[in-house]
Specification:
MetI-like fold; mainly alpha
């Protein structure tokens, strides 16, 4: 197992470099860089993308300056100073190598437009994403696994039919639509004012007692977590049911029953470990996918300033240090989580041996 782990760790380096190379190359062809963003704001207060949609006028602007749309009227010396400030006076290869060298030293730079380091910016948004990712994943597992087991045991019954209908309906409802429904019903939209409308904590959170802070936190996070859990809940329930159904039909279950083993011991002593292998071992990957891929729309609806909104705003503003810094960090963490998932497979089922796999 040690040799396999070492190979996977060594494979992380070229994989991560490949991710960064592809994304860095794509950015070079995307219009509306940070300098054009600044020029657009200074030249009229509008957005740079309006100028790209401006047709012939935008093209004329670009032609007169030679490089930047909307730069007409600004001194060339000022444009050159901006290029030096952002590092765009150097060739792309040199900029990429410098960036990767800094990242290897955990220096992710500073945001172009926020005057704050990328690390501090991510740490500032982290509580929201941790809250959504952690609680959504835990609730999905705690509800879906028992429900999926019961559906497998009572396969074909009325309980199975009705719960399957409810699960399908839940899966079909988009998370953002369910979030709006929750706001309308329980956050003072039209009916009940039970939960707060926005934020992760109340304005007077620092003045509350420890118990009050905990209750206030859960009071604010309830609706966003429910909205982000609904689709994962449906998928995980059906996956649990199908895994148990597949195991229940195997010969070792028939043999255990023939020996007089109780149904509960057959289910939880024999079937559970094999059926839950793929589900439990996949927990790290599920958590990271919810954690980093948290719904931007849900964060926006509930006015939560998390990593989803941070990534979107950085992409719109072409804040390259934030984009590449978070991409490097999350890519590295995602690769380690993939390795962790493999190790969990071995921990749950020692019969699995990755040493025999070809890499």
């Amino acid at each position: 197992m040690g040799a396999y782990v070492l190979r996977r760790l060594l494979l992380i380096i070229p994989t991560l470099i490949g991710i960064m190379v592809i994304n860095f190359a794509l950015v070079q062809f995307v219009p509306g860089g940070p300098i054009e963003q600044i020029i657009a704001r200074m030249d009229g207060g509008g957005d740079v993308f309006e100028r790209f949609a401006g047709g012939a006028d935008a093209g004329a602007d670009r032609g007169q300056q030679g490089m930047y749309v909307g730069a007409r009227g600004l001194p060339p010396e000022f444009i050159e100073e901006l290029e030096r400030q952002f590092g765009f006076d150097r060739p792309p290869l040199e900029r990429f190598l410098t960036m990767m060298w800094n990242y290897m030293r955990l220096d992710f730079g500073e945001s172009y437009f926020r005057s704050i380091s990328v690390i501090d910016l991510v740490l500032e948004k982290l509580p929201v994403s941790i809250s959504l990712g952690l609680w959504s994943t835990l609730i999905a597992y705690l509800v879906s696994i028992p429900l999926g087991i019961r559906k497998a045991v009572r396969d074909g019954s009325r309980f199975d039919t009705w719960t399957s209908g409810a699960i399908i309906v839940g899966y079909a409802i988009p998370g953002f639509l369910f979030a709006i429904l929750l706001l309308v019903l329980f956050a003072g939209g039209s009916y009940f004012q039970i939960f707060p409308l926005r934020g992760l904590t109340s304005d007077n959170w620092s003045e509350l007692s420890l118990v009050g802070k905990v209750l206030d936190y859960f009071w604010h996070i309830t609706l966003p977590v429910l909205a982000s859990t609904i689709s994962a809940f449906a998928t995980l329930t059906l996956l649990t049911k199908n895994s148990f159904l597949e195991e229940i039909k195997k010969q070792y279950v028939v043999t255990a029953r023939a020996k007089g083993v109780t149904e509960r011991r057959v289910l939880y002593g024999h079937v559970f470990r094999n059926a839950m292998l793929i589900i439990i071992a996949g927990f790290p990957a599920v958590f990271v996918s919810v954690f980093f891929g948290g719904s931007l729309i849900i964060e926006t609806i509930f006015s939560l300033d998390g990593l989803g909104r941070l990534g979107f705003e950085a992409a719109v503003a072409r804040d390259y240090p934030v984009i590449f810094g978070t991409l490097f960090t999350f890519g590295l963490l995602g690769l380690f989580v993939g390795l962790l998932s493999d190790l969990m497979y071995v921990w749950i089922d020692p019969r699995i041996d990755f040493e025999t796999r070809e890499t």
